[in-house]
Amino acid sequence: MADATYGASTPTETDERTTLIQKRPRRLRRSVAAATAALVLCGTAIKVRRGAISELDEVGELGEYPTTTWEAVNNDSVEKVYDLEEHVLVTTEVNEAYVFYKELLFGRLGRATGTLDPSQGVRVKSHSYANSAWNLFQVQLDAKLIKANSIVWFTVANTMDALVAGGRKAELNAMGVPDEVIYWGCNSGDVCDGSDGQLLVQRCVYTYGDDILLHNTLLRTLLAYELPLTIVLASDLDCKTRLPVTHHKIVYAGDSCQELVEEYRSRGGDAAWFPQGYEGVVTDSAVDALVENVEASLEAEKDTLLSYAGSVLFRKPSRVRLGEWAISGGIEEMEQLAAKASLKLDVESYGMYGMDRVHPEGPEVTWTAGITDEDSDTLQGRSYYVLSPAGDVWTSGRMIEALTFGAIPVVDETYKTDNGVSAKGCKDPALRWRQVAADTFVFVDDWAKLPETLIQNDALDVEKRAARVSRLHGVLRRVADDAREAIIRPPSHEKTVCTTVDLSDDQRQQLVQQAYDYYTQPALEGAPAGGMPWFDAFVDNPALPGNVCGSKDLGASEGALCFDEACALPTAASFSCKAVDEPTV
Question: Both 419 and 561 in a single domain?
Answer without folding.
Answer: no
